[in-house]
Records
---
Amino acid sequence: MAGPTGSQKLVVLLCKFKDTAQIEPHPPAFYEDMLRRGSGGLNDYWIDASHQQINLDGSQVFGWRTLAQNRSDYIASHTDRWSKIQGAIDAFPELLVVQHAGVLAIFNADVNDSGRSGPGVLVNVNDDNPCLMAHETGHMFGLGHSFDQSDRKLHSWSAPGEYYDDHDIMSAMNVFHYQHPQFGPTGPLLSAPFLDFMGWLDPSRIWTPAHSGSTIETLELVSLGHTQVPGYLAARINSLYVEFRTNDGWDQGLPHPTVLIHELTGKTILAMTTESASGAVTGKGRWDHEWLPGQTFGAKSPVLMDIEGGTQISVDSFDLQAGKAVVTIRHQVARPVSKQGQILGGVAVGGDGILILPNGQVYKVPPHSPVIRAMLAVTAFAVRVKEGLALERS
């Protein structure tokens, strides 16, 4: 997918109800500052998070405007998210909203919801911060939610693993953010696979294998938030992405530097956990996506890698002064069975010997070993028993 580029002009509509007209959580200048370059607000976030591909220049703020209804009446007559946004648009008939990329409708009292609907974002009172607004405008630009491998559910209505990539802005408020002194909760960045999906990650800064066969390469990855440093910002092998993140800038809410590994499937990214794929947590709490020096993703024995193939990603070291991580990526294609061999009962018989894998263990057996004859005899007997049981059932 090619994401948007250039200026994404937003219109911010500040609305207050007839019975709460005296309440203005922030002056209009607060939101104007958030959309102004150089303030550390939402515009600066998207400039950096998109690697300078988009900005919010030209966005406008209107209000506070008092609606004709009391809060309870408005909620009763505007029952869904879009109707609440549309109600705000209707309160500003002088505006040509179609000239903008999207609408942010911000209310001064509780409207029981926040989130995106169509080309609009409903912002509930006290949700007017860069973390939530970046997430929701990310939807507006074409991004979905981020996930991890776990079966955890953040809400009763959410999917397993949804919102559990705590290093990616598209997991909403369930992320490692920091407190901006003016605007409140802010960060983190967008993960590398989403950047690539949107076309915002320079292809020359993504390491990919030189060919489709087996390969092993040790390389340096620059911190994703430090685009000014030359070098690879990510590695991609098939659907897997590897990136390095440091706890500074927009990522200063991260607990510490880490390598992250994601899988991109369609438009969905899945954070690879260092825990079991079932989502079990064994003491690391929510820090279970952090791949640190000494850890290896996709760990198999060398013998098993030679047979089955697969991808291993080892984190070798961090150089925090340079803002780089060293990783080793090994990709092994599956070894074909010898033409003169055969697969029988889990035993691979070939011209170069036999490999037996009982209970996940790997054993090498020399060619013409008596073990071969024994295993083939056992397999043949098991087949006859199975066929006999099938006949009895029939």
---
Amino acid sequence: MGRNRVSVSKGLVAVVGVGIVVGAVAVLHKTDKSKAQIDAGKVADASSQPKPEAEKKPAPKNTGQIALPGSAKALITQTPGSEPAKPSTGTPGGAAAPATPTAAVPQTPAPMVPRPAPVPNNADPAVSAKALADGKAQIDAGQLLAGRTILNEALTGGQFTNADAQAAKDLIAQANEVLIFSPRRFPEDPFQSAYNIQPGDRPVRFAYKFDTTWEFIARVNGIKDARRLRQGQTLKIIKGPFHAVVSKTTFMVDLYLGSPGDKGSLYVRSFPCGLGRQGSTPTGTWMLQPQGKLKNPKWWGTADEPAREAGDPLNPIGKFWMGLNGTEGDAVGKEGFGIHGTIDPDSMGKEMSHGCIRLVNDNVEQLYEVLIDGKSTVIVKP
């Protein structure tokens, strides 16, 4: 079990990086009982020997942490495979009381968890093929909204075989490059709206009314500088909140508008991801932690790697962090997990984190822009 100290500042939650992130963590120091010293075959009096200086316990391996603004609530970071950690009874200011010396207990590595098999699909191949062909024909003819509607209804209704479902996702994502991610407006699209800039408008405020972020509105409308907004200007708005579904089988993050898979929800696009070692990313439903989003987190390092400042291109957390709170399934009660970037793009499709969900920086930036803390959910499936 690894325990780290996290710096605390105003209002936001402190988090621990690469795999499992937590706030205001106490550091335990190992104290070993003194032993008699042997000199030339004789037992020396231990009390006559000079007392060694307090031994500092090295930072735990394979555990990073990032400095976030946040509360002083003490949490414990847990390395996958270790026993559950308990909160420290810290003293004022976040320092921990000295630990009572205990005998070291060897940790048994967690067993390798086999990758879950794909869920069988009983869709009628003929129905699946027709829906895919009809949707593709509409998109090829430039009828993007009509084609997306055919494909999305069949997808959320479970009408596609596994192979056709992937082809349908590719076509929907292609259509969404224009329908969602371009400035072109489609008034008949139920997921879109328009907003006219009013005197004294603040972008963050009107974005919040639509359960989205100003950064995403700016991306969609091709706006580089909010100071250039003018009164009466009309902006394309995609109404949120967005939600995400993570598949541990395929190592993919699927982005949705509306409750994923429910009638009326919309598949948007997918991103490859990396997951926790030995299956340590808990399945279940997570809520994006309120005030749990951070740009350019600082990483405090491990025994194996040095600390990295915010913005350092060698910071292994990458450029973005989104904390998660477990609400259903195995995720219930779990804290310290999150979605973050990485400087190791080769880790996509692999189990290399300490339980967190990692994406390459360009992709995690897009998730950061659309997911809303306190409203967006992340469902992790086998």
